[in-house]
């Protein structure tokens, strides 16, 4: 019998007319690992929240949900809390108490578990998740990845049969995200827990899940093994295309009859088989990017950092060491680097949030410190923080935007300027919404619009792709490119290798406080073996210069058609 | 601003019980206390009175088995009251704690207002160091939240900027100041008299008046938007009831 | 140096401090107050080192103030020292002021020890069983305050990044920027509160009677020390009921300093006040012995 069965579920939020879920039917077996994917707003969260009564949103609903053959509502809330564990997206706000041990015990305390049994369960989970070393710590000292791991462990202490996770890795950096998914696989394999997960980053999940369900505008449009769902991508269902793992995307755009690869390893084998008897291609790096780079060289230097050193306190270690960097006008410069390498700090130096204790920073040839506050922020420089919510002051996007403009500006001009940035950032329809009612990607564009009202010539962005699905990332890239075309210089720091590889004019790797390599993506990534794009890792043995999926697809197709022709 | 507090009995009875305790039980204790103790009797009795006055709120709250969202909202408002001190680190002695307590009273009602006040004073001392002043501060902020709620409900003042901020300054200077300064009188063993109290008020005039002004100014500036924000949460998620 | 007293069960620590603070509040007996002040000072210096010494410098004016303000307001007492604007200043009131200051100072010092030894974790552990909902609120606040402080920094930096620096500019500009930070923090915290409450409910909060995780356990050593402590308390209460706590400062100072019972009670007080230090010394000796055996 299915562990969880949903029959003809339709659901509509009170204030909306279009249902969020339309006639969803779904059956999940005990012990399965199921991933639900779909772009933001496709109804993933709403569906997951229906699987636990206390989290079910209010609204009009029809259809039934069964747990082990009994209607879900017939279980009392205590029983549900014991059978179904739930982990939410934000690692921070779902932590209730101040101590790690207390958080682990919270579920058991709520269910009235006797103290002896509780100690045992908590000890067990702490060692399963490797939490012993930080068991007595304050929650506030943990990293984002540790916090989410704690949330997972806390959900597991009650030994649930089913574990539901709503985009748990969206706020984590890639490495923490990978570790998290790994441990989910371990839970599924070693404890037999049924795992239902919604995710944007599918690269890793696709390799370990048993089933993938694709949702679009409240409906289930695909429900099959990941291989088959990957193969489906060829048949024109393009909304989810860019969310798929790189091998699937490449596979879908290259004519072949082989089975669909999911992982890098499978992708390499697939490529080898596909191109078995073809002649190797002449090894020319992609042309177009090179040109861009040469353009940049002739242009004016906008940001120039010379031997910059910085630390937060006198006695603290240096975060930025001897950093030198020149960025030209109209560039889209990406600073990559792991956690704690000082990426955000580097940006904070450029935006004068922090000041270096040695070295020079010049903007348009003038010392950064010599600009007055209004010269600097009124039309020269703007910085988008990692969390755009740190910028929203008012109750609606429109009010928030007009708050940014000087009070003396006449109303009509204000409206015009707001309309202009709203069009540029594609938030015209969202102007009257409350900023917190927007999705992550929309919030980010609203915050960007706020910055753009000042017409900055330099735009600094801190992790702008964090938590965004592939659809929003493309939108963001389009906006940034439009700005760059207008002569705005964009500097962003990111973990997102794929995004930088695809859209940057140049990339730099920040390591040990300074930037080690600075070059256009094609050059930048080809040499690296680990720190590079999935497409490059997959195709390196055949096309060492191919960095993006498109590069690989293009080269594959050239080889195939040339051979035919 | 509209209050959806249902006119159920539970809501109205609690203030009555509280009034009874404040009005009858405490004076009786006072009477017997003075008759049977010597030396530091006033200090001990006043401490007992404060504890008596606070206990019913805590007990009623526990007995009610509050829902998750009630705990969360009290915790969030108290934490805001404490943490907001950091936001104004650059303007010394100018803290929004009193303002947030009064806003909590206006939005959450008598019980919520009292709890946010007393709890934020308690935890603030837990973080910065407990001392003999803790019970007085707890009681002072608690009563401030309570009075804000009761007087708001009776319509003596409205949630408009100016009346709210005037009222807030008044509460801070006389009610909170009165309670805490009585505590100072007790702790220093000065004779319990009007002239003693006046002397303490005089000594701490600058301190108290800054505090009162801060409450007034913050209420003037943040009360309306903050009440709006709490309203939004209430309507959207039913978090505040 | 390690404080062994801190490793005892929270119930002992809490009772101990309630006891010594209550004694220091209730009595005005000069010998007991001096004992209390001396012992609390020793323990506070042991725990806080230099911090206490700095604290003394801050407390000294408070001490003098209380000593001197009492005779200014309290004119009872037979031994008149001098007149200030027609009001008599009496020796009795001055001595009374002095010991009021000693009492307050010792209470403050005991609290300074309490703040180190009775951590928030221990307090919450102790009260979780009696007031579960409030204790949970305490724990949530202790989680939220540092989180909000972090968030204030993040918001402050974000505001600096668009040219609104809360630490610079005119006072009104600073207040305006500070208010913007507060306003953003309020929205953010309220919106995040929803997922906290979701997370609590998802983990079964409110479905039945709560139990609590036994973070600390009560062992034989705890029982022994608790027993000794209660014995000391009993002696002290007996002494108090026997009239030892009754002292008269007015109209003339009359205190029974020596009586058959009083030495027993003084001894009980000394032992009680020194209990943490005695435990620490005993532990130290034990380790030395262990080391020398090797």
What does this structure look like?
The complex is a heterotrimer of chains A (565), B (241) and C (294). Chain A is of the alpha/beta class and 565 residues long. A 6-stranded mixed sheet of chain A has the order 6-7-8-3-9-10. A 6-stranded mixed sheet of chain A has the order 16-17-18-13-19-20, with helices on both faces. Chain A has a 4-stranded antiparallel sheet with strand order 2-1-4-5, with no helix packed on it. In chain A, strand 14 and strand 15 (366-367) form a beta hairpin. Chain B is mainly alpha-helical. Chain B has 8 helices and no strands. Helix content of chain C is 72%, strand content 3%. Chain C has a two-stranded antiparallel ribbon with strand order 1-2. Classes of the chains: A alpha/beta (565), B mainly alpha (241), C mainly alpha (294). At the B-C interface, helix 2, helix 3, helix 4, helix 7 and helix 8 of B face helix 1, helix 3, helix 4, helix 6 and helix 7 of C.
Q: Give the chain pair forming the largest contact, with residue counts.
A: B-C, 61 and 66 residues
Write down the Rg of chain A: 25 Å
Low-pLDDT residue intervals, each spanning 5 or more residues of chain A: 287-291
Helix content of chain C: over 70%
Average pLDDT for all residues of chain A: 89
Report the structural category of chain A: alpha/beta
> How many helix segments of chain C?
9
The total count of strands of chain A amounts to 20
Main sheet properties of chain A: 6 strands, mixed
Count of all domains of chain C: 2
Q: Strands of the largest sheet of chain A, in order across it?
A: 6-7-8-3-9-10
Largest sheet of chain C at a glance? 2 strands, antiparallel
Oligomer: heterotrimer
Rg of chain C, Å, rounded = 26 Å
């Amino acid at each position: 019998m299915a562990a969880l069965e949903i029959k003809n579920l339709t659901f509509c939020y009170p204030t909306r007319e279009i249902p969020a879920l339309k006639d969803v039917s779904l059956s999940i077996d005990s012990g399965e690992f199921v991933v639900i994917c779909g772009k933001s707003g496709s109804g993933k969260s709403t569906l997951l929240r229906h699987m636990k009564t206390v989290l079910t949103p209010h609204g009009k609903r029809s259809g039934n949900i069964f747990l082990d053959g009994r209607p879900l509502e017939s279980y009392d809330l205590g029983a549900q809390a014991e059978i179904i564990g739930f982990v939410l997206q934000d690692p921070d706000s779902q932590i209730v108490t101040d101590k790690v041990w207390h958080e682990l015990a919270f579920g058991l305390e709520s269910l009235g578990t006797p103290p002896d049994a509780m100690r045992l369960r908590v000890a067990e989970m702490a060692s399963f998740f490797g939490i012993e070393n930080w068991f007595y710590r304050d929650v506030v000292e943990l990293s984002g990845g540790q916090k989410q791991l704690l949330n997972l462990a806390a959900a597991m202490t009650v030994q649930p049969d089913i574990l539901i996770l709503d985009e748990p890795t969206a706020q984590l950096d890639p490495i923490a995200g990978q570790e998290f998914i790994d441990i989910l696989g371990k839970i599924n394999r070693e404890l037999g827990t049924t795992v239902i997960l919604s995710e944007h980053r599918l690269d890793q999940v696709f390799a370990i899940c048993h089933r993938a369900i694709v949702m679009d505008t409240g409906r289930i449009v695909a429900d099959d093994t990941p291989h088959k769902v990957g193969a489906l991508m060829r048949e024109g269902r393009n909304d989810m295309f860019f969310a798929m793992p790189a091998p699937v995307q490449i596979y879908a755009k290259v004519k072949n009859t082989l089975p669909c690869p999911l992982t890098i390893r499978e992708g390499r084998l697939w490529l080898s088989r596909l191109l078995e008897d073809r002649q190797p291609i002449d090894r020319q790096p992609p042309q177009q990017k090179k040109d861009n780079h040469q353009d940049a060289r002739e242009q004016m230097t906008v940001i120039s950092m010379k031997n910059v050193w910085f630390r937060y306190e006198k006695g603290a270690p240096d975060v930025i060491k001897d950093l030198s960097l020149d960025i030209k006008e109209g560039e889209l410069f990406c600073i990559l680097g792991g956690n704690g390498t000082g990426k955000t700090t580097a940006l904070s130096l450029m935006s004068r949030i922090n000041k270096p204790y040695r070295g020079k920073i010049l903007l348009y040839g003038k010392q950064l410190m010599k600009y007055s506050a209004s010269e600097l922020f009124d039309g020269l420089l703007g910085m988008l923080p990692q969390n755009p919510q740190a910028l929203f002051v008012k109750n609606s996007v429109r009010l928030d935007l007009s708050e940014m403009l000087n009070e003396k500006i006449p109303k009509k001009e204000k409206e015009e300027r707001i309309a202009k940035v709203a069009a540029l950032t594609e938030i015209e329809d969202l102007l009257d919404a409350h900023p917190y009612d927007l999705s992550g990607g929309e919030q980010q564009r609203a915050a960007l619009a706020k910055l753009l009202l000042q017409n900055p010539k330099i735009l600094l962005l801190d992790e702008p792709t964090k938590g965004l699905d592939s659809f929003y990332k493309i939108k963001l890239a389009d906006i940034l490119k439009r700005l760059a075309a207008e002569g705005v210089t964009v500097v962003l720091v990111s973990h997102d290798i794929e995004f930088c590889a695809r859209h940057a004019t140049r990339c730099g790797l920040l390591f040990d406080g300074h930037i080690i390599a600075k070059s256009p993506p094609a050059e930048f990534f080809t040499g690296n073996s680990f720190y590079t794009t999935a497409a490059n890792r997959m195709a390196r043995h055949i096309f060492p210069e191919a960095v993006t999926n498109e590069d690989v697809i293009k080269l594959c197709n050239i080889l195939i058609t040339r051979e035919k022709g | 601003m509209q209050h959806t507090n249902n006119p159920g009995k539970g809501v109205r009875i609690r203030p009555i019980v509280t009034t009874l305790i404040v009005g009858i039980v405490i004076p009786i204790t006072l009477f017997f206390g003075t008759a049977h103790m010597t030396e530091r009797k006033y200090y001990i009795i006043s401490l007992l009175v404060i504890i008596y006055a606070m206990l019913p709120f805590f007990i009623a709250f526990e007995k009610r088995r509050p829902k998750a969202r009630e705990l969360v909202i009290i915790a969030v408002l108290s934490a805001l009251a404490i943490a907001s001190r950091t936001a104004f680190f650059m303007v010394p002695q100018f803290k929004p704690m009193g303002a947030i307590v009064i806003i909590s009273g206006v939005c959450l009602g008598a019980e919520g207002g009292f709890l946010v006040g007393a709890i934020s004073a308690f935890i603030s001392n837990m973080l910065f160091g407990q001392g003999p002043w803790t019970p007085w501060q707890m009681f002072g902020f608690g009563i401030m939240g309570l009075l804000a709620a009761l007087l708001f409900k009776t319509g003596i003042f409205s949630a408009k900027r100016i009346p709210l901020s005037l009222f807030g300054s008044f509460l801070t200077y006389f009610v909170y100041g009165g309670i805490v300064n009585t505590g100072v009188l007790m702790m220093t063993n000065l004779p319990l008299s009007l002239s003693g109290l006046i002397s303490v008020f005089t000594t701490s005039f600058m301190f108290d008046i800054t505090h009162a002004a801060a409450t007034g100014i913050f209420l003037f500036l943040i009360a309306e938007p903050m009440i709006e924000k709490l309203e939004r949460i209430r309507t959207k998620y039913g978090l505040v009831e | 140096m390690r404080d062994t007293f801190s490793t005892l069960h929270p119930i002992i620590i809490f009772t101990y401090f309630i006891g010594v603070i209550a004694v220091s509040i209730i009595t005005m007996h000069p010998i007991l107050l001096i004992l209390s002040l001396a012992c609390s000072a020793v323990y506070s210096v042991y725990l806080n080192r230099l911090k206490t010494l700095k604290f003394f410098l801050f407390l000294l004016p408070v001490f003098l103030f209380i000593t001197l303000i009492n005779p200014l307001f309290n004119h009872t007492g037979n031994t008149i020292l001098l007149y200030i604007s027609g009001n008599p200043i009496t020796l009795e009131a001055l001595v009374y002021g002095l010991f009021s200051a000693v009492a307050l100072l010792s209470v403050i010092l005991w609290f300074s020890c309490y703040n180190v030894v009775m951590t928030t974790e221990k307090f919450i552990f102790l009260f979780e069983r009696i007031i579960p909902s409030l204790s949970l609120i305490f724990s949530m606040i202790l989680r939220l305050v540092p989180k909000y402080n972090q968030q204030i920094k993040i918001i402050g930096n974000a505001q600096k990044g668009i040219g609104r620096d809360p630490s610079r500019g005119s006072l009104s500009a600073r207040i305006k920027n500070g208010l913007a930070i507060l306003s953003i923090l309020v929205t953010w915290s309220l919106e995040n509160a929803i997922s906290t409450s979701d997370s609590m409910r998802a983990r079964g909060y409110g479905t039945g009677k709560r139990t609590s995780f036994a973070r600390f356990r009560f062992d034989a050593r705890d029982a022994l020390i608790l027993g000794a402590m209660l014995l000391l308390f009993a002696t002290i209460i007996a002494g108090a009921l026997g009239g030892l706590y009754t002292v008269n400062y007015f109209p003339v100072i009359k205190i029974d300093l020596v009586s058959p019972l009083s030495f027993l009670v003084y001894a009980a007080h000394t032992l009680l006040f020194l209990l943490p230090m005695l435990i620490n010394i005993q532990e130290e000796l034990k380790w030395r012995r262990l080391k020398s055996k090797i």
